[in-house]
Amino acid sequence: MKMIQDTADPEFHRLRGFSAGRLTIGDRHYAGGVILSGATLLEERLPEAAAGLGRGHGELILELDPEIVLVGTGQRQVFPEREFLGTFLSRGVGVEVMDTGAACRTYNVLIAEGRHVVAALLVD
Question: How would you classify residue 21: left for phi > 0, otherwise alpha for psi between -120 and 50, otherwise beta?
């Protein structure tokens, strides 16, 4: 995925690129999944596959008080278990599941709009 130059506020975490097995956030590369918001980056908190996402992961994401949650499930879209998705739906928080490339693009658009988005990104 190719990204365009970002001239927005440098205090926010911006996704610069994604390829199989690797995310680029700012100037750093990440080989594992991350939970990301404009101001927060949590490494090594996610399973390798969407099937491993559970209520505990959802609660961790909710601690960041998101307006909307994006779940990037790797190279292809795979829906996580109901328990994980229900964590958000029961609290009235929107959640979208997509492949990680699409989640990265959507995250950048929403951050640029000033939305409080949290992305859980797997990198399979």
Answer: left
Cβ distance 36 to 44 under 8 Å?
no
Dump pLDDT digits (tens) for 32-72: 899 999 999 998 778 989 999 999 999 999 999 999 999 99
| The CATH number, out of the four listed (3.40.1230.10, 1.10.150.120, 3.40.1260.10, 1.25.40.80), of the domain defined by the range 15-122 | 3.40.1230.10
Grouping H, G, I as helix, E, B as strand and the rest as coil, residue 122 is: strand
Instruction: List the chain domain ranges.
Output: 15-122
The pTM assigned to this predicted structure is: 0.88
Q: Are 72 and 102 in contact (CB under 8 A)?
A: yes
Mark residue 44 as left, alpha or beta (left: phi above 0; alpha: psi -120 to 50; beta: remaining).
left
Alpha-carbon distance of 122 to 102, in angstroms, equals: 12
With CA atoms as reference, report the closest residue to 36 among 10, 60, 1, 9: 60
